[in-house]
Amino acid sequence: MKLITALIQPEKFQEIHAELEAFGVSGMTVTEASGYGKQRGHVEVYRGQEFTVSLLPKVRLEIVTTEQRAQDIVEIIIAAANTGSPGDGKIWISTVDEVIRIRTGERGSAAL
């Protein structure tokens, strides 16, 4: 099993969520996050004063899935999140040794 973690722009979440639901993703964890990458934030002007916004808002998606579906899910996220601009986000994939559904005690892919 694999854990797919994606950091995306908040305005792309609804589109990505709809695409993943259409693909049949049955569950995900969504967290509001802040951070920066190579773009290092940006400068804004408020009431004539410049200030640097160093932490930008992001959405963190976490999806546990089978190895067979992981690459398809990653491709869906990339297609929906890509604007071609810096700050589109990152995706990383980790190996999951075991998943246990607390309510039933099911283990492995049956717990997904």
UniProtKB/TrEMBL annotation:
* Superkingdom in the source lineage: Bacteria
Under the heading Pfam families, the entry gives: P-II (PF00543)
Q: Give the UniProt family note.
A: Belongs to the P(II) protein family.
**Gene Ontology cellular component terms for the protein in this record:** cytosol
A single Gene Ontology molecular function, please? ATP binding
Gene3D superfamilies from the xrefs? Answer: 3.30.70.120
Give an example GO biological process.
regulation of nitrogen utilization
Name of the protein: P-II family nitrogen regulator
